[in-house]
């Protein structure tokens, strides 16, 4: 088996995509998921470009990664300056990652016209930058920007640039189809030529402008490239980067000779894809190959009939191999096996009758627009409710939110809430910066006297998305709230036509989860509730 | 030049896609557009399958088509029956199209297990069906279902099936990758073998389950296929069919030896893509190659800088060749050059002083959390305000929103709004499914008596994002609203600590942009506001 290293650049090149924006917390969560999956390299960002990336590199060192190596990305040094005096170089080394990736110019037109330096100085910039990083960082990867375009126009110079990188100690030379317009046969020819001339392992980095990013990556691998760079869901500028979901799906399932990811992790591909969409607050692309919600959906009567008789009739792979599933007619995102797996993962005790009730309930909620990928705390609470294990921490009697605004002033926002807590009634009111903040304030006032540990908890993120965009503001909205305390971060979800009600539902689950979690004898297993907590 | 025939099956295979549904009128309009573009074949439907398709074939005969030939689609005759007695065959001939396309089984497993007939009877079904249609219809095309899967398992039988079609008089043999899982190298090998053995022109029909539909189509063409089947925008079951926009874009612009479409029509590709989305009432896919709204959008500062020096720096083709356009995204990464480009793109008149004020203002707003990349209408209004060109359509005096909820009931939501419109005061109130819906309702009540064309406009999407996730619900939120009327789709943005205020700001811009746009003398150029509009 030949291992193909997967280099994920969702957090760097992917974030160049229109509308893509990750918070620091998002980036750390995604890194952990990619590591779990068995991605070999996670490119975290561009240390010089913004303070968020700098904080990321500081924080990522504390993540207990099992497999992935984190890479910091930067450009070659500026012209006419020593590498050690260059801000960018210094920032790269200061990121203290095990891997640094440096991008440099291959295409003579770019060197002369865009960069405005001589062809010789560009070679020195490449060599110096790599040599400098090599003296501080164990593994330096060289990304040859516009390799295929440059190679087509001036193959000799293109080869000189990567020879400069190889000579200076680059561990990998990655050939980039930066403009995304190359054809698979051109990629194959170029990789052939380079592998004959350069004695360093090759990688491939493609973009999808010709809708050929995946084909181009596979074409390079067939000619000997051993690393593929891309992004989850193909996020990225313009038409995006090669979608790693498709790259990995094809390499793992269509080519018996290649090995990717950690063993047994391919079944989590769909989950990671959806997690990234949720985290980026983007809608799934239903028709996305391998992981899309429609990828194994059958509408045509003949196809449904065929699939029933023999699944391979109209399916190129078994959907379960990538954690996806077949759908016939109505949407059923979660199958029984997913749910069973999920229950096991959380150590939630269950019998077959509970499993069936959870499945029914999840399908029903998903039809209403719920999604539990980024809201597993709500899932855990749901299971507890269905199992009759839910403690009555509090019960809503009524809430009211009002906002009034005038031009040039902050609006006035007030929320009141009336709850039963045990046999007492709490009726509280709070102002806030906005309706959720005001509701949060009123809820704390009502509950903290009974449950002081709620003071440890805070809300860290709040996301709203319209589910059926067709109907505009009258459509349903899904609110996802991320909360944390000293130990954990958890997501909860609410769905309603009304954003305030959806927020309330997610907020209620956020508080309930904190209460449930603190009362569990051990983390992960929801068993019985300590009787003295609600006193 | 070798002509590659383009066979569009948007109206048949495309309509198998999840959520795709065309009315009879839609189908006729799309046929006319495809004809104008120079598509060679338009497959209109499946005469036996539903009455709409039957009506389509009746009506399409009256369209004055310039170039395209309309095809009716059907399966081979049923088992053990003469072709002339088969309902499907009769319906195909009755469609009176110049072309009939018949699909038949190639894969022995399908013949035996799914169809349940003998291998010999399947060959007779193919031959009889084609011979019967040939006796009534000038051109009969044979679609070999599951060709590549069948060929891999039992190449001899697969070849026998298409030989039966060729012997019976098929004008084309189209090799179908029905399950969409084949690899380009397998397609190339199979096409090589078939073209050596079968003396009939070949076509290729691919699906995108491995994200290789376009690559597979191109691979077949390079080995001698002369017809490509696909759909506009890649509509179709599961992951869709080969996107003809990408197939045509690549064939026309990357391969000098091939000719497609009518001369000079490639510039209408983007328009046809969007027309099909609009007609199908589907959202555009921004990152779609060649024709997507982000396909030539630049965000990274380095890329914007490069594109301005030389467009080929970061663009694989000139966007104008396919009727698309370059966009510079106004984002946190943007500098003065981006803003200047944006002003030019919108034909917004400006001098250096206005440019400087816009830049200051954008930077200030971006620091507050604004992002204009999905909200260019708000950017246009901002420039107009800074230039003193903003018309006073209406002025907010006050709004109030209240939501009250009880368990198990829909919350009650009410918004009131007080506006000055010219010298009148409008004070209106509305209920709604949620606060934005209620505000939208109250705003319409207040403004529609003055500006009736607001009735053309509706909200299509609403997104909320917390900007600085660290501070939880007390952080700022960014609301982006997407609106549309018959002609355009536009995005607006609002930022505040309060989601209701942020929604109000985005909603206000959405309405103002509609009013401003309708009063402009020409589309795209915001110049002066016609004085009589507000009367």
UniProtKB/TrEMBL annotation, chains A, B:
GO terms for molecular function: (R)-citramalate synthase activity; 2-isopropylmalate synthase activity. Residues 4-268 form the Pyruvate carboxyltransferase domain. Gene3D superfamilies: 1.10.238.260, 3.30.160.270, Aldolase class I. The gene is leuA_1. The keyword Repeat does not apply. This is Citramalate synthase. The lineage of its organism: Bacteria, Pseudomonadati, Planctomycetota, Planctomycetia, Isosphaerales. CDD domains: DRE_TIM_LeuA3. Its EC number is 2.3.3.21.
